[in-house]
Amino acid sequence: MPTTRTIYLDDRHDPDARKIQVRGGGRHFKEIVLDRDNYLWHNGAKDASRAVPIEFLDAAEYAQDRLIDRIWYRGYEGNFSYGKGDHYVTLFAPHTHVDAAVEALCAAELHADFQPLHALGDAVKVPYEQWLTPGERFLVRGVDYDTATSAFRRYLRHHGKRANLRMNIRAEGDTVRVRPVPTQSARALHDYDPERHPLPHGHSAV
Question: How far apart are CA 175 and CA 169, in angstroms?
Answer without folding.
Answer: 10
